[in-house]
């Protein structure tokens, strides 16, 4: 495994972290708790020591499963546990942004209980809340840090100007945006900002909801509340464009590196000034590609070949904006 550091956390952090949105089941067609626990523990066995979760993932379910897995595994002091705050939901499962200090104080205690821990290593505002001054939200997290409930402060899905305002209230250690071969909006804004200001990037969506797994095909059907039923990338004509790109990228990965698209897709992120790539998995066997991701690099020519394939095949690209929850009703 490759490792890096996060300001405020006195441990080296694996450059690949385990994302647990799918483990929560919500918007991913349900969950299998026993299998999910084994997946988390398998990740830890393979050198991944950063586990990222959030209350909204299954409305507490993901945090509960992560908490059980860590309790059974032990070694809490060597694991970087990252969670989030700032979203609320109603009885119909509708999600809204809420970063009021009162909400943050409620959520931290609920998360600590579900996770079965006395502290969270990295606590992140899940989405920017336009109805609360960012300095006020940062101040609420700073107080939690002073109380010893959290160790480092992060944000997710924030723009540079929002991070600027947030940093007036607390030290900002990390930013978590979406980033993968097909979703690159941060390259012109968030990525250079974080690099210039010493903010660690840990990106989510490494495999673009499975499009970069190398296993997606046109016959795939999504059931229940699966997020991909409403994802514009999985609707024609875009779906065929992205599948064609994935197929050609798979050929490139095998011909040039003797690896699969999944390996190249995650490696691409790690070679793009991103310190940590979150990789979603919920079955132990999904972690088998891990050894072929670390300890190699893409050349400038490799990056150009990748860009050329995507430019030639994806004629109607679209980002992940559909995932953004609305501001709460006042």
Characteristics:
330 residues; alpha/beta; TIM Barrel; 8-stranded parallel beta barrel; two-stranded antiparallel ribbon; 9 helices; 34% helix
- CATH architectural type: Alpha-Beta Barrel
| Global Rg | 19 Å
- The number of helical elements comes to 9
Q: What is the typical, i.e. mean, pLDDT?
A: 90
Reading off the top of the CATH hierarchy, the class is best stated as Alpha Beta
Helix content: 25-40%
| Spatial strand sequence of the major β-sheet | 3-4-5-8-9-10-11-12
Distance from N terminus to C terminus (CA atoms, Å) equals 46 Å
CATH topology name = TIM Barrel
Number of strands: 12
The dominant shape is globular
Strand content: 15-25%
As for the number of domains, it is 1
Secondary-structure blueprint of this entry?
Blueprint (H helix, E strand, L loop, with lengths): L2 E4 L2 E6 L1 E4 L13 H13 L4 E3 L8 H13 L6 E6 L1 E3 L5 E3 L3 H15 L4 E6 L8 H13 L3 E7 L3 H7 L7 E3 L13 H8 L2 E4 L34 H20 L3 H10 L5 E5 L19 H14 L17
Q: Overview of this structure, please?
A:
The chain is α/β, with parallel strands linked by helices and 330 residues long. The chain has a single domain, classed as TIM Barrel, CATH 3.20.20. The protein is built from nine helices and twelve strands. It has helices at 33-45, 61-73, 101-115, 134-146, 160-166, 190-197, 238-257, 261-270, 300-313, and strands at 3-6, 9-14, 16-19, 50-52, 80-85, 87-89, 95-97, 120-125, 150-156, 174-176, 200-203, 276-280. It has an eight-stranded parallel β-barrel with strand order 3-4-5-8-9-10-11-12, surrounded by five helices. A two-stranded antiparallel sheet has the order 1-2. The longest helix is centred in the C-terminal third of the chain and has 20 residues, at 238-257. It is globular, with a radius of gyration of 19 Å. It starts with a strand and ends in a 17-residue tail after the last helix. The model has no long low-confidence stretch (mean pLDDT 90).
């Amino acid at each position: 495994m490759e490792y890096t550091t996060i300001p405020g956390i006195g441990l080296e952090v694996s450059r690949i972290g385990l994302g647990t949105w799918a483990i929560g089941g919500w918007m991913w067609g349900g969950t299998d708790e026993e299998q999910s626990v084994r997946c988390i523990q398998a990740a830890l066995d393979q050198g991944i020591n950063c586990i990222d979760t959030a209350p909204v993932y299954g409305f507490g379910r993901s945090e509960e499963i992560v908490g059980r897995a860590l309790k059974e595994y032990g070694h809490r002091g060597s694991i970087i546990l990252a969670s989030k705050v700032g979203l609320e939901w109603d009885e119909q499962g509708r999600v809204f942004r809420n970063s009021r200090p009162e909400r943050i104080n409620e959520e931290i205690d609920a998360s600590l209980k579900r996770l079965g821990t006395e502290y969270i290593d990295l606590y992140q505002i899940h989405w920017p809340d336009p109805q609360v001054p960012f300095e006020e939200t940062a101040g609420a997290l700073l107080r939690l840090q002073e109380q010893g409930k959290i160790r480092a402060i992060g944000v997710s899905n924030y723009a540079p100007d929002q991070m600027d305002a947030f940093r007036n209230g607390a030290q900002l250690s990390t930013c978590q945006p979406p980033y993968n071969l097909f979703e690159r909006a941060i390259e012109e804004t968030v990525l250079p900002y974080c690099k210039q200001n010493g903010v660690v990037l840990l990106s989510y969506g490494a495999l673009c909801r499975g499009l970069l797994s190398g296993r997606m095909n046109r016959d795939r059907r999504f059931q229940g509340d699966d997020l991909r039923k409403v994802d514009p990338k999985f609707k024609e004509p875009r779906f065929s464009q992205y599948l064609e790109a994935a197929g050609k990228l798979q050929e490139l990965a095998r011909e040039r590196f003797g690896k699969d698209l999944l390996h190249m897709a995650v490696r691409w992120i790690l070679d793009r000034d991103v310190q940590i790539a979150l990789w979603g998995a919920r079955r132990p066997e999904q972690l088998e590609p891990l050894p072929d991701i670390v300890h190699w690099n893409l050349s400038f020519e490799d990056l150009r070949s990748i860009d050329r394939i995507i430019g030639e095949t994806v004629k109607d690209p679209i980002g992940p904006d559909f995932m953004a929850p609305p501001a709460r009703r006042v």
